[in-house]
Amino acid sequence: MFPLPVATPLDRRSVLKVGFGGLAALAGGTSRGAVAKGRAKTIIFLHQWGGPSHHDTIDPKPDAPDNIRGELGVLKTRVPGALVSDLLPNTSKIIDKVCQIRSLHHTMANHNSAGYYSLTGMAPSTDDQRLRDSRDLFPAYGAIADRFAPTPAGIPGFVAFPHTIADGSITPGQHASFLGKRHDPLFVGQDPNQAGFKLPELALPAGITPERLARRGEARRIIERQLGDLEQTALARGLGEQYDRAHALLASPRVREAFDLSREPDAIRDRYGRTTYGQSCLLARRLAEAGCRWIQVYLHPSIGGAKGGWDTHGFRGEKMYPILKNHLLPLMDQTLPTLLLDLQERGLLESTLLVWVGEFGRSPKINDLAGRDHWPKCYPALLAGAGVKPGHIHGRSDKIGAYPASDACKPEDLSATLFHLMGINPATEIRDPLDRPLPLSPGKVIDGVLA
Amino acid sequence: MGSLLIPLILHTCALGPGSGMISFRNEVMPLLSQGGCNSGPCHGNLNGKGGLKLSLRGEDPGLDWKTLTHGVGGRRVNPLAPDESLLLAKASGQTPHEGAVRWKADGYAYRVVREWIAQGARPDPEGGPRVRSLRVEPEEIILPPAGGILRPKVLATLDDGRVLETSRLATLEPSDPGIRVSVEGNGLALLVPAGSQAAILVRHGSAQALLRVWSSAGPAKTPRAANHPVDRIVGQRLASLGIEPAGGVDDGHFLRRVWLDLAGQLPPAERTRNFLADRSPEKRANEVDYLLGQPAFADLWALHWADLLRVEEKTLDPKGVRAMHAWLRRAFLENMPLDELARALVTARGSTYSHPPANFYRALRDPQTRAEAVAQVFLGVRIACARCHNHPFDRWTTDDYNAFTEIFSAIDYKVLENKRADDLDKHEFKGEQIVYLRRGPPEEPQGKGKKAKAPEKPITPARVLDGPTALKGPDTPQDLADWMTKPGNPFFAKAQANRVWRRLMGRGLVEPEDDFRLANPASHPELLEHLADFLARNRFDLRALVRHIALTETYARGIDKAHATVTQDDGMCAATLPRPIPAEQLLDAWAGVLEAPLDFSGYPAGTRTLEVAGIPGPSRRRKSDDLERFLRVFGKPERLLSCDCERTSDPTLAQTLMLVSGQLPQRLLTQSARLDRLAQTAPGSAVAELYLAALCRKPTDRELTDCLKLLEGASDRRIALEDLAWALLGSREFLLRW
User: Fold this and answer.
1) Superfamily assignment of A12-199+266-449 in CATH?
2) Measuring CA to CA, which residue among B618, B597, B596, B28 is closest to residue A172?
3) Which of B177, B662, B732 lies nearest to residue A16, judging by beta carbons?
4) Domain residues of chain A, as ranges?
5) d(Cα B450, Cα B463) in Å, to the nearest integer?
6) Tens of pLDDT, residues B622-679
7) Nearest to A235 among B724, B728, B736 (CB)
8) Do the Cβ atoms of B652 and A218 come within 8 Å?
9) What is the pTM of this model?
């Protein structure tokens, strides 16, 4: 295992594209320092597709009128003033370890535009459900983490699973886009809850025995010895390095074993719940142990439905409260506290940051179908672990959860904070395919959440 | 401070509105630019910084004057106590400033701005002098290998004809971030490190000039004699910089290169053997001519243009993709001149099924996208920035953008039917569409609840880029095509010649190839002129230009020690630029060397990847097959942008994992007819055959010995050959075109 240099061999053009220092360093780096030492070695990003109702989860409004309060009761927590829905008993017990932001807001009311915003911290140019996933859009957080805080060879920097999310068309913001495919996530499309779950990329094709693998290695050496002057070019070296990474990954028991959930005691697997999402959260913990940088778990591929994401309008006779009671809240209450406590018990919470956030919240007013509609004007995020204050609430929503009442934050402020916590200067400049200079995050680090 | 002011006022009064008066527009604004104050990461940001927002790179002096003089209760400038002005206190760091110290407290910028404030912080009066154009001396300079310090002299021509030195007011923006700009007494200095080949944009207000810096490798040499004009131009530049170019490649190497570049595939082993044995001095030219006559040449260019023209299934539907691709392929088979191709696309109308070029506008669904794509693909210009604000790095204004966009505003389409599979997916169209030129204003959207829209802002009359007058219309796309393809058009021939050069050389003379602008000049302006001229004189004959380039010494260069370790893409053409074989060619090369079938669904058996019109985009509704996955992993673009930059070529982990543990490569190895055959022949000739097919060369003696040892040690010859073939087809020598 050897650490990769921060700048893997780049051709001249790539060097030019990544503006080291220069104005970017002036723009935001002076007060906090350009290369702060990050507290969070790993971020586990639990993406809540569909848009969770804040009223029915972690920002209830018990004193609001019926048509806003909803039909759920509340539980007190150890943090004064922090209530949670009464269907989240386990969650109520960990609120003292969590830093809440209750004042996120933006203006994107469609899943794909808001989803892209939530996955990149970059506002799309229009609030368009048809926002199309193309290489001129901003890279996923994990791709930036992989580019600017690389992991040692053999350890994937950015892993995402177990779904690709979409609303009609695929939601942008799930891959490296113009940062280059080398920073794309190692994507696991298999269901970790299935027996025999494994990662196809880490398994050799049938018939490739260790003897054959060794012979292939020997044959490769024979040919590569003749490479001559080509060997010295940046491209050939870069390619060779990717070969080394592939071999290191295949040879590394650490990563392969991380993906082998059968090594986990049944009791632990049961604690996370025998669901795709539950076992994905367990996989996330195992990958954090293996040293991955950014681990992204998607709740569900679809925005809503009886067994889908958080999009609970009440359309098509699918009533919100039954779905919340039977599916979403139990799922949340079994996974989030379990993951947090598991990380803590293993001493990983010191260096791992857990993030729970969707693309928006849901309307204060309950609609005619007894559901709640999209609400980007105020919604929450949960952070826990490395570098953030436990038992803290940053920003409050107003009496009915409609608008931020204090310390309003935007997704780019959250992205700046996450990068900062990883030790990446959010003002670092990158260039899009039109060569436009863009900061990694145009937002401000939310100082109020920093421990 | 009084005595210091004398030279200052002497220097600047000519730019000001009256004797001794400092000009806001001509002096204060340029100093804000020079300090980086109005740059994107600072106060030029969309949201400003620290409560102060200036226009991006000073595009709106009027607004900035208001902001500075009227904002925050007038505290930014205070004519009664100039030194207490927030503008000076912040910029000089006397008040904490997140952007650090920009102006020293007694420095030139500080004094000029202080003086302007003391004079009342006035705007420039109507009719005050303005900078019309800028000149920099020198315009071009060759520096010694170690680099050096440059003190360029900047001369501004005012609109009244006067010429003034304004070196101290200019903003210098080097294309190479390694070059540092520092402020010195009466001007600016550029600290150029060793090895820098850079363009430095010199700005004063909206006037711009360019300074080019070349670092030499040693003393100038005498240019080598060359017969070919391309070699002559390239050779002169190399000699003037003291660079010794790499030697030419051997025949096998040349053959592999020219087959990949002209036909997108590897030469058959038999052809390589014959070529190597051929003693004719004309054999390289003969081979180029042979390849130009192959249908694969058309396949390769149809693929390239299908990428640029967004030929993808969701918008065009599978039938449209096939129709458009077939039309492109025929155009290149018949050697349709490039100007005719451009005209056919830009003026296309009618059914997207029966008149395929109409798919050009089906793929580009609104006037803005059309304008940006036409500018990028045909004219080599990126105008997208000017959609929202004047282009910060180019001369295009939003007015230019709107006028160019207006050309396409009358293009409309009727959706005859849309049988899309996914109702939620608004990008999906399945069914015939008719592209037509609408007479009159757009129809109001029908349906209840939609109010008739009030007429929006006045329409900018349609105008071509750089065109002073409005197009006569009403068929403005026709007018555009006429202008674009007229001899002497400043963009078209150069953009196309540059594109062809880039396909063969791996790097455009202007790079990126669709980003022509002052600050991104051609590496060899004279060569670009020559190629554009050649193309126009030969009636935009693509094959003629490809042949012209492929027969140069410059094209046939190799790599040697001297060039391998230095940056490869400095654009000097001293050595070849290695690059990964594109996805489609790589898959065909695997299948070709192994003689293993690729089964593209919906295509007859034996179809090569290069002949496939398009693959479906990623979708949740269907799982990609392993051919599609392979192609995507190796960078096949999804065709959602009008830019070759969408095709990625950087080596990735996913690629090497695909080669090491992927199912598809293993399947091709298992199904290889060639390996079946070679398993029955003598090991020595099997090894030689594999090398020839994959690398176009014989194994070296040592390779042969080692490979034979490897084969002989194995119990199963077929399996051992598979492992050897795997290594050959995954080797860097194989994966790269070099």
Assistant:
1) Alkaline Phosphatase, subunit A (3.40.720.10)
2) B618
3) B177
4) 12-199+266-449, 201-258
5) 32
6) 777 899 999 999 999 999 889 888 888 788 888 998 999 899 999 999 999 999 999 9
7) B736
8) no
9) 0.84
